[in-house]
Amino acid sequence: MGPSSWGPTAWRWLCIGLFASVLLVTGDALAQAGEQPPDTIEARVLACAPCHGTVGQGTDNAYFPRLAGKPAGYLFNQLVAFKNGRRHYPPMNYLLQYLPEDYLKVMADYFASQKPPLPPPAVPDISKEMVKLGEQLITGGDAKRGIPACTSCHGPALTGMEPAIPGLLGLRPTYISAQLGAWRYGTRTATEPDCMQIVAGHLTEDDVKAVAAVLAAKPAPANASPVAKGSFPLPFACGSQPQ
Q1: Radius of gyration over every alpha carbon of the chain, rounded to an integer in angstroms
Q2: Domain 128-216 grouped into CATH 1.10.760.10
């Protein structure tokens, strides 16, 4: 079985293994030259680069999300969730298990401060009817089914809100679909009240496919930064967002 048949998990472990090898070789070369690697946050977060990009801009792998520019509070919450095992992904759980929360805060602040351009929008590979469904759920929701619009929490431009609501732009449809599925089935959770798990629980498979495809096709706004805290009221209480 060759690399062309490998699944996403195999590629993730290969990515981590190759990067670990690079770190060992580079560290050994510096030691032999009598030099010390720079002790900067930029150097330290290079461990994140193979999967998330050098400044968190994302990579070609659809399962690794963009980190750059997301609210620091959101990034910190996710790092803590991986560290404590509330989010389950073995490479991240392992890498963060022994890092102190103060350092996770520094990492979160670093990636939040990065502003690389968003990737080009994806072309939706769904029918016109599904596109219409996705647009409706994103901008208007479905009150009869208890589904608020994505924009009601993630902002009119879908760029998120400080301190802990992420933007939804610049992500691949596969990643968005996987995360919505994780919320739906309880394999991804957040602080109670877990608003995303509540919302995702009302979504059908077609809803998820439509929303993921349309979000990934959205062009970048002029300002992709999250809006300030309190810029708009949330439709309900959310445990990860201070009230």
Answers
A1: 19
A2: yes
Q: What is the pLDDT of residue 239?
A: 85
- Our measurement of the distance from residue 132's CA atom to the centroid of its chain's CA atoms, rounded to an integer in Å, reads 25
> Cβ distance 152 to 238 under 8 Å?
no
| Residue (of 132, 135, 122) closest to 216 by Cα position | 122
Question: What residues does each domain of the chain span?
Answer: 3-113, 128-216
Phi and psi, residue 162, nearest 5° = -65, 150
Separation CA 36–CA 29 (nearest Å): 10
DSSP string computed for 49-105: HHHH-TTS---S-TTS---TTS-HHHHHHHHHHHHHTSS--HHHHHHHTTS-HHHHH
CATH number, span 3-113 = 1.10.760.10
And the tokens for 217? Answer: 């096709």
- Give the C-alpha separation, 166 to 87, whole Å: 16
Q: Which two tokens stand for residue 155?
A: 């902002």
Per-residue pLDDT of the chain (243 residues; tens, 9 = 90+): 433 444 555 545 545 554 454 444 444 544 455 577 678 999 999 999 999 999 999 998 888 999 999 999 999 999 999 999 989 889 999 999 999 999 999 999 999 999 999 999 999 999 999 999 999 999 999 999 999 999 999 999 999 999 999 999 999 999 999 999 999 998 898 888 999 999 999 999 999 999 999 999 999 999 999 999 999 999 999 988 765
Residue-wise pLDDT tens digits, 201-235? 999 999 999 999 999 999 999 999 999 999 999 99
My answer on whether omega of the bond before 163 falls inside 30° of 0, hence cis, is yes
